[in-house]
Design a protein that fits this description.
The complex is a heterodimer. Chain A is 45% helix and 0% strand. By secondary structure, chain A is mainly α. Chain A has one domain. The longest helix of chain A has 25 residues. The termini of chain A are far apart. Chain B is an alpha+beta fold. Among the domains of chain B are: 84 residues, Alpha-Beta Plaits; 123 residues; 89 residues, Calcium-transporting ATPase, cytoplasmic transduction domain A (Distorted Sandwich), CATH 2.70.150.10; 124 residues, Calcium-transporting ATPase, cytoplasmic domain N (3-Layer(aba) Sandwich). Chain B is 53% helix and 19% strand. Chain B has 26 helices and 27 strands. Classes of the chains: A mainly alpha, B alpha+beta. At the A-B interface, helix 1 of A face helix 4 and helix 5 of B.
Chain lengths: 56, 740
């Protein structure tokens, strides 16, 4: 059962990585606008003003 | 703070200063009450308005006795965060709040998933035996994960409860925080003692479910700000003003004056009512009038504030300052509607506040009961009682449904100006329509042409149209639209109050009032000092609203009758109102014969003409005495008292009428068909309110006894509570989206 000593810290590490990745995505504005970004591809000409500003 | 202050503060009326902001962290009626009481108690503060649905707070104070800083400090002290309504600081703060919420949810969700693996291990171990050291390892690991979940993801609940307790009130966060801390501390003690059951997984799941509920609620609250308010918030903080020397400067919107010239770039909101200086542009007026398609406007056209410029950058001249534009009036009306809490919602709020108190009491009773009866179940049962109850569903039921209905109506150009208008509108059974400006539009149309002598009808029309071609008088439109023929004309002159004069082929012609036209003949033929109009012409249609004469030195040549035209959608609108089971009547100040004709055309039996406002008031009182609920529809300007007396009232919106409208509803796109839709939506909304309240009450009545009996595990309780408020909000959202 000593494998648990390895697997549990490994699980914690994976959790930390997952949380870090999610925070990174949020901070990069990946979840800021979930409704309208998909429609950008259909717009004729996308003037710079209509696009969301690049993330800081 | 100074950055915030710059965006939310201005000098109000009567020497008072005023500030308006969002209070982040406001979730319930109790929060709203504490802001109202806490800020209202400051010395010098005159008025505090708190809108729970939109989380907007408006404070006005006496600058000699209070300062903006004191007000904002008080708000922060109560546990809320003041965020400006618009401007970049405001949107950044809202952005940050949203992202923070997403991170909290993400952490809680991932942690809950990971933790359930360890918990399954613990459960399996309890069933089939487990090494004590591994059991302890699993507990400690779960505890390690639970700490950031409680302290980071759960922080809003803990902070909310702390502020609630500090101001000695019981908000919704109190039972939540109590449950979280109880579960966490008990689990830590059990881990320390190396025995018993741990609830770390319940803590994580509870936080996760609750946060998801709050997050959805936050989004709905922001999207249910109705179109008008969303628009006011989309106004730029500064505008580009053109100076007389041709250079441009950026000035705050508040400093804009009537007569200033502005540059409006592509895609920008036209901030105030204005006229287009030159060229033409495409304008999207949907936010103001509900008109879906962009319209082309030429130079000189009036652009309502709030329209969006869809064409190239254009120059406009402001015709009013920011405070007196269509947009400002709309905003004020919406504000009024939202500041008032409908009686139904107030009752639900009070119930929710009492509810929290009883829940805490009930949780204590549950703990005591199980402690005597079966100590092992005392803890989970108490936890479940604290968690399972949901006062949010109760207090959200009414505002969510009403906000949804308001949004739906705003999209179709119907502005709701009173909070309780929808409730009253749902109850009406009789509609009384005014004629002029309501059933008919202000556009005049030629009803009849009669000629004398040799002048043929077409020639008379062509003459009239040519004389009227440059006139801005409403009557001129009737002639200009009647024929495309024109004759060459010189010396065209308009005599105010009389008519128009011009020279055709060397002969002077006049169009206008009978006496004035007759003077032409009197000039050349003094014998006929004041010739009367020919008998054949004086016997004009008595129903005609107005009679206009055409004549030359030879005397009267033709008479034109002009009447306003029925709105194209009037017939359809009356039919739809009827199909809703409403009785439709006409009450108008116009001639009886005209009204009879209009009524016959629309198939309305009950029509009365020659009614002054007093008589209309009498009619409404009479109908009300018969136990009827009357909706009065007028043009909103001269029938103010009549509108006020009716059970519900509706006026044609637009322009100046907006500012002093006494009506509950305004039809911004001047389409009567919207009226039937509004009645239908109001009925739907009141139905939804009742269904929501029934559901929230039913849920709590079922869930609490089950939890107290120890039949609901804490995580299931968390799921049930979040689901119940989500259900209420989601139904309102669906209602806002469906089209009826």
């Amino acid at each position: 059962m000593s494998i648990a000593l390895l697997l549990i810290p490994l699980g914690l590490l994976l959790l930390a990585v997952a949380v870090w990745a999610f925070f990174w995505a949020v901070n990069n504005g990946q979840f800021d606008d979930l409704d309208h970004v998909a429609e950008h591809a259909l717009e004729d000409e996308s003037p710079a003003a209509a696009l969301p500003k690049s993330p800081p | 703070m100074s950055q915030v202050a710059a965006h939310l503060h201005w000098h109000g009326a009567r020497g008072l200063e005023q500030a308006e902001f969002f209070a982040e962290g406001m979730h319930c009626a109790n929060c709203a009450r504490s802001i109202r009481a806490g800020v209202g108690a400051l010395p010098g503060v005159r008025q505090v308005d708190v809108n729970l649905t939109t989380a907007r707070v408006s404070v006005s104070w006496d600058p000699d006795r209070a300062r903006l800083g004191t007000v904002l400090d008080a708000v922060e002290d109560l546990g809320f965060h003041a965020v400006p309504l618009n401007g970049t600081a405001g949107s950044e703060a809202r952005h940050a709040a949203r992202r923070g919420m997403q991170k909290r949810i993400g952490l809680a969700g991932l942690a809950a998933m990971q933790m359930s693996m360890y918990t399954v291990g613990l459960y399996a171990g309890a069933w089939s035996g487990i090494d004590p050291w591994i059991e302890q390892l699993l507990r400690v690991t779960a505890m390690l994960i639970a700490v950031p979940v409680l302290l980071y993801s759960g922080a809003p609940f803990l902070a909310g409860a702390w502020h609630d307790l500090r101001r000695r009130s019981l908000g919704m966060d109190v039972p939540v925080a109590a449950a979280l801390l109880l579960a966490f501390i008990a689990s830590v003690l059990d881990t320390w003692r190396n025995s018993g059951q741990v609830y770390f997984d319940s803590v994580a799941m509870f936080v996760f479910f609750l946060l998801v509920g709050r997050y959805v609620e936050m989004n709905v609250r922001r999207s249910s700000l109705n179109a008008g308010e969303a628009l006011v918030r989309s106004l730029p903080a500064t505008v580009t003003r053109l100076r007389d020397d041709g250079r441009s400067e950026r000035v705050p919107l508040q400093q804009l004056n009537a007569g200033d010239r502005l540059v409006v770039p592509l895609g920008a909101v036209i901030p105030v009512d204005s006229t287009l200086e030159r060229g033409s542009t495409l304008v999207d007026e949907s936010l103001v009038t509900g008109e879906a398609l962009p319209v082309t406007r030429a130079a000189g056209a009036r652009l309502p504030g709030g329209a969006i410029n869809m064409g190239a950058a254009c120059t406009v001249r402001a015709s009013a300052d920011a405070r007196h534009s269509t947009l400002a009036s709309m905003a004020a009306l919406i504000e009024r509607a939202q500041a008032e809490r409908p009686p139904q919602a107030q009752a639900a709020d009070r119930a929710a506040a009492h509810f929290v108190f009883w829940i805490v009491l009930l949780a204590a009773a549950t703990a005591v009961f199980w402690y005597w009866f079966d100590p092992a179940r005392a803890f989970p049962a108490t936890l479940a009682v604290l968690v399972v109850t949901c006062p949010c569903a109760l207090s959200l039921a009414t505002p969510a449904a009403l906000a949804a209905a308001t949004t739906r109506l705003a999209r179709r150009g119907v502005l709701v100006t009173r909070a309780d208008a929808l409730e009253r509108l749902a109850a009406i059974d009789t509609v009384v329509l005014d004629k002029t400006g309501t059933l008919t539009n202000a556009r005049m149309q030629l009803a009849d042409v009669r000629c004398v002598g040799a002048l043929p009808r077409s020639a008379a029309l062509a003459l009239a149209a040519s004389l009227e071609q440059r006139s801005a008088h409403p009557l001129a439109a009737a002639f200009i639209g009647a024929t495309t023929d024109r004759v060459a004309i010189t010396d065209l002159r308009e005599h105010a109050g009389h008519g128009i004069e011009g020279i055709v082929d060397g002969a002077t012609w006049r169009i206008g009032k009978s006496d004035w036209v007759a003077q032409l003949r009197a000039r050349t033929d003094p014998a006929a000092a004041r010739p009367a109009a020919p008998a054949a012409l004086t016997n004009a249609d008595p129903d005609a609203d107005d009679c206009i004469w055409l004549g030359s030195a030879a005397g009267h040549a033709a008479a034109f009758s002009v009447a306003d035209t029925l709105r194209p959608d009037a017939r359809a609108a009356v039919a739809r109102l009827r199909s809703l089971g409403l009785e439709v009547r006409i009450a108008s100040g116009d001639r009886r014969a005209t009204i009879a004709r209009v009524a016959a055309e629309l198939g309305i039996a009950a029509a009365e003409g020659r009614m002054d406002p007093q008589a209309k008031l009498g009619l409404i009182r009479r109908l009300q005495a018969q136990g009827r609920h009357v909706l009065m529809v007028g043009d909103g300007i001269n029938d103010g008292p009549v509108l006020a007396a009716a059970h519900a009232s509706c006026a044609m919106g637009g322009g100046a009428a907006l500012a002093h409208a006494a009506a509950d509803l305004l039809l911004m796109n001047e389409s009567l068909v919207g009226l039937a839709g509004a009645v239908q939506t109001a009925r739907g909304a009141t139905g939804l309110v009742r269904a929501n309240l029934r559901w929230a009450l039913g849920y709590n009545l079922c869930a609490v006894p089950l939890a107290a009996a120890g039949l609901v595990s804490p995580w299931l309780a968390a799921l049930g509570m979040s689901a119940s408020s989500l259900y209420v909000v989601e139904r309102a959202r669906r209602f806002a989206r469906t089209d009826a």
